[in-house]
Amino acid sequence: MSRNFHLVNLTPTQGQQIDMRARISHIGSMPLSLPASTSLKLLPFPPHPNPLRPLPTALAQTRTALVTGSRGSVIVPVPSFCSLHLEGSTKSISVEPLSAALSQTGVGAVPPKPNTTEEAPPVKVRLQVENSGLKTQRAQWGLTRALLANAVHGVTEGHSLVLRLVGVGYRAAVEADPFPAPDAIEQAILQVSGGSAPSSSSSSTSTPATAATSISGSNWLNRDQVELYRQLVASEDGGSQAGSGKDTKKVPQRLNLRLGYSHPIVMPVPRGIECATPAPNRIVLRGNDKAAVGLFASQIRRWRRPEPYKGKGIFVGDETIRLKTAKNK
After folding, report:
1. What distance in Å separates the CA atoms of residue 72 and residue 323, rounded to the nearest whole number?
2. How far is CA 213 from CA 48, 66, 209, 220, 221, in A?
3. What is the C-alpha to C-alpha distance for residues 226 and 193, in angstroms, rounded to an integer?
4. What confidence score (pLDDT) does residue 123 get?
5. H or E stretch at 210
6. 223-237 helix and 184-193 helix, angle to the nearest 10 degrees
7. Rounded distance, CA 241 to CA 305, Å?
């Protein structure tokens, strides 16, 4: 069987248009809207999600984007080949040291509002890559833009998930954690600081010599990285309000689940996540980091995955399951 292949001659203009369309990330090229109450800073070192372990190779060539809003701060990794540009201007968001970034807004602090009574319009920011012809850069282009958009939404409005407990006797309750344990970031900070707890009053300035050198005996890259996470922990844990004398430190909580086992299931609520039970069979999770909220929801769901015969289990959001018909012998 013979096949006839027809070649279509394209003019240079048509060929360039087709090539350009193939090299544009539709999600990555969309402008990112930053409200007036939100700030975006680029730091010259990569983020470290778990300082008790070595830095993943995927994050070695990245920088830290610190998104701060009215609800707090979120850290987003930005690849080194990505750059942020203000729409309608030749200016770009440049990388600045931690001391300069914290001197303007601070971690977890609300950016200063303009003196005018009218609300300032949001700033449009576009994300660009060095070579859009590379598949890896196009993939990171859209992913980074989506992560930044989730961070902006998280620090302004927050992310929430509702979990439904379906089953006889399935109950959930939030209670104070009498034995709170430090997480990986707290343990790594305590190892570097010699056992002193993170404090919001610690100095945020560091000399270039200490910022550039790595910390021996730990997985931290430099002192600025430690200081950033120390202030994040202090802002999420809360503290005393200046001038009011009131202690607003958050009490560690845990989630007590009754899911048909012979023993209750106790899960500590991670830092940065608010957990509430408006009904015994309903759990509401809320936080600034969308990935952290979804991860904690998946950990809760793991104890009772929805089963297809009776429809019992823990359902996340609008999750549904198709019931199966039992085989009758």
Report:
1. 42
2. 16, 22, 6, 10, 7
3. 9
4. 87
5. helix 208-212
6. 120
7. 42
Which residues face 283 on adjacent strands? 163
Instruction: With a cut of 90, say whether residue 191 has pLDDT above it.
Output: no
- Name the DSSP class of 31: P
Q: What is the separation, in whole angstroms, between the first and last Cα of the chain?
A: 54
- Residues 153, 154, 158: CA angle, nearest 5 degrees: 105
Q: How many CA atoms lie within 13 A of 245 on its CB side?
A: 0
DSSP per-residue codes, 71-127: S-EEEEEEETTEEEEETTSS-B--B--HHHHHHHT-TTPPPPPPSSSSPPPPEEEEE
Which two structure tokens, joined as six digits, stand for 307?
């089963």
Closest CA to 123 of 94, 82, 72, 88: 88
What is the reported pLDDT for 328? 78
Residue 150 makes CB contacts below 8 A (sequence gap 6+) with 159, 290, 291
> Residues 72, 147, 59, CA angle at the centre, nearest 5°?
100
The C-alpha atoms of residue 30 and residue 81 are separated, in whole angstroms, by 17
Question: Given a cut of 50, is residue 277 above it in pLDDT?
Answer: yes
Q: Is the Cβ–Cβ distance between 257 and 292 less than 8 Å?
A: no
What's 7's DSSP letter? -
Q: What angle do CA 293, 296, 301 make, to 5 degrees?
A: 120
The residue written with tokens 């989506």 in the block is 146
The answer to whether the beta carbons of residues 140 and 27 sit under 8 Å apart is no
CA 269 to chain centre: 16
Q: Report residue 19's pLDDT band, with 50, 70 and 90 as the boundaries.
A: very low
Q: Across the strands, what pairs with 41? A: 66
Question: In 3-state terms, what secondary structure has residue 147?
Answer: helix
Q: What is the SS3 assignment for 323? A: coil
Over its C-alpha atoms, the chain yields an Rg (Å, rounded) of 24
Among 93, 51, 72, CA closest to 222: 51
What is the C-alpha to C-alpha distance for residues 231 and 270, in angstroms, rounded to an integer?
A: 17
